[in-house]
Amino acid sequence: MLPQGTWPAAVAWPRTREEVQSVLKEASARAIPVYPISCGKNWGYGDACASLDGCLILDLSRMNRIIEVNTDLAYAVVEPGVTQGQLVEYLRENQCPLMVDANGAGPDASLIGNILERGFGHSRYGDRFSHCCNLEVVLADGTLLNTGFGAYPQARAQHIYKHGIGPSLDGLFTQSSLGVVTRLTFWLMPKAERSSFFFVALNDAQAIGPFMDRLRPLFLSGTLRSTFHCFNDRRLLCGDTTFPWDRADGKQALEVQHPEVLQQLCKQFKIPAWGGSGSLTGTALEVRAASQAIRRAIHGLAGLDRLIFLDESSLRWLERGVKIVSVIPQFRSLTQYLKKIRMGVEVLKGTPLRGPLKGASWRSRAAVLDELDPLENKAGLIWVSPVLPMTAQGLADVLIPSEKTMHRFGFEFQVTVSCLNERAVCAVMSICFDRQSKDERDRAEACYQQLLGDLTKNGFIPYRSSSIFPTVLWEASPDYWQAVERLKAAWDPAQILSPNHYIRTSPLTK
Amino acid sequence: MLPQGTWPAAVAWPRTREEVQSVLKEASARAIPVYPISCGKNWGYGDACASLDGCLILDLSRMNRIIEVNTDLAYAVVEPGVTQGQLVEYLRENQCPLMVDANGAGPDASLIGNILERGFGHSRYGDRFSHCCNLEVVLADGTLLNTGFGAYPQARAQHIYKHGIGPSLDGLFTQSSLGVVTRLTFWLMPKAERSSFFFVALNDAQAIGPFMDRLRPLFLSGTLRSTFHCFNDRRLLCGDTTFPWDRADGKQALEVQHPEVLQQLCKQFKIPAWGGSGSLTGTALEVRAASQAIRRAIHGLAGLDRLIFLDESSLRWLERGVKIVSVIPQFRSLTQYLKKIRMGVEVLKGTPLRGPLKGASWRSRAAVLDELDPLENKAGLIWVSPVLPMTAQGLADVLIPSEKTMHRFGFEFQVTVSCLNERAVCAVMSICFDRQSKDERDRAEACYQQLLGDLTKNGFIPYRSSSIFPTVLWEASPDYWQAVERLKAAWDPAQILSPNHYIRTSPLTK
Fold first, then answer.
1. Whether residues B203 and B174 fall in one domain
2. Structure ipTM
């Protein structure tokens, strides 16, 4: 996945929390570095590889029990091996009227793994870390710690409240190496009386900034509550096809070397400059009220091509209609187009699909198969994901220089702009490369370092790091990291847990 | 405020973060216990007193600068001495169209002080800790730590995103003694296009459980987003009057000794078995849609007396009408009634009033004045505030035995049920006592210990503690507190900061 991988010393597959405790106790006593993974599907940021060579990989994928699902209070208690696909399937089989927040990492990605990296999804509960609680954690020496009200085994509110009494510790176990989470409670959403999905198309690349200025008041007022994602043309394109190796050599970005090819591909796949998707839920009248507020807010925006609201029944109706007219050749492309809409709707509805993963394989020269994961497709992908204010100015300050940098290293500028909360967006830029080409690997690594360095200098810090933590981020904030290292020393004095995973440790291996 | 106070060794009033750093550096070197307070208005849980005698009180009330208010991104950067009243006043003076979450602690209560105890308010941002970020913290040895993206001084997202990169530390500084917060960013709400306030009256004490079962789906679906509070009759009554010392002796609960007096007072002040208040914001159509969903959900509930929706204009119209008819003696009580509605509306609108503090003085024998604070009114009050599921069963399991316990110790059962999130409520039970009476102080202390012990045993742990932390809560979860003590040792090895404030330290003084 990343330009370089690392070699493990060994792999352990515990099945229970007690086994995790024994492994860590032993590892602490012998100073063996341990790198826990949930399912190893940290696409865009890593895979099953540790940050350093020579670690014992603690693969938690066999701890995959769904311990409890509570329909009245809408939560699930899960282990680290539970994938988003597995939980969705479980709810379906048990006819449980609850919905899971889904994201594009595919059905085989661990829920806990994603939460602990503070990943996000597409629904009202898209900020996943804010919608979980009650972590069961094994510390480096094998000590057990339950956070929140889980600290009191009898506590009746342990699954439904974010904190306990005393300091709130959950945040410590995200983006860190301070403990191994072996269970948590994940909040779910009741299926809504009415769900509406809306799709926005902008026909001008510059319109994204002013568009965000229009969206922000809708988030601040509470009209918009689901994570909203906007994809630029090249980001959308990689969902439909792969790099046209027959028409370009990939030494330069396609839009620089052969803008006409990009243009032709976008036309072929009906791809706008930007496409965005979000959802609204509630009663019929609530959904209508929110749709009206969105229409009003976006009305007259320069560069607005389309704003479409769809619900499940209107989409089904369209699908049936298109099936009929697609016997006429001119309408055949509509089928493809509607398939994309359906894929978007399914993710918004909480169905984690394999489709969105395909984009990772944009620059792969291998035969890319939808059912394979990015590693099997020989895909190379690094995400650089700075956080910025949801303003036109913020977007201009990030997107314009970043595009130039990516072109300098010969990569297409693929970016998703995701609304993380009411005020902030994350610009997730994909450096897609052919993992089989040394030249592309080297350029990808250099591009990554340059982008990240420039963004950090300009005040745009990523919300999340690849599994190889960028030294520049440690060096730019020594006081903060030193304070964190003091906590690390308190709980993991032998520094065995996830060396260099966010928290810097002395290099244990060369 | 509490049955016992403590004596300070000295008081320091720093004006700057640098002064806080010097004090702590010196205190760490000399092992002097330091107890920081923001404004000392921790009503129901404490005042300006430390948990132990002999501390240096670090009074931060003079650090009261509003450093920045950003209207576009809706946030304020404040110091610990900034009160909720001060921020509201600042916004009003600067005609800034933003709204602050207000609560019943009065205009002089510190925002940061309340957030760090994880207090809550009455609006969409009622969960205050979830709506702040970017803490500036001085550790025990004087080291400075900035959390979130604030760790990078140049970070453009430092005021608008909850986390930074790496572990999320903010939770560590709530309900703890791990650092002194000298600044943070507090998120505000744009004034809504339309605000509606709704009031519910139940005429049956048993109806609260089934009522919560009806509300829960509205929270889970996202229709209700503001903190909703329900007050029982005795809790409502203390807003209107004080204990009828002329008709009862207070040795027993009024409802036990003289139920007819309680009944007569409730009739006089038009007080229902339960009264609740909440708000809706959005466009006119959004507010209408949400009102409709609420009406539908509550329709036909046994024990429902009234459900009223009001907006500012309809309330003003009523006020004018009542002013006119109140010349007729029979209608005079309407004025009083409408005054209460107005007070409720003002708090929901984000105006922190002195009125709600009056309830603390229920058992005070002193002449109670509205403009004085509870300490000056000689009020005694301890809150016991367990968290429980938002279900009829949860409420029955907490309220029925707790009422019996309070009666056993001779106190009226006053309780507020507050919806903390979509799944959990907090039952805040007030032990109101006359602080001038040794008998009442002793009974209050004994009642507190009994209630808290029983609730803890039965799985109902409080969300927050009084400034004298209950030993039973440490003893019921030794593993959790030991893990926390290891963090304490890392950042405050001399254990100078807030001894025994949530985190147990060796007793420093006797």
1. no
2. 0.96
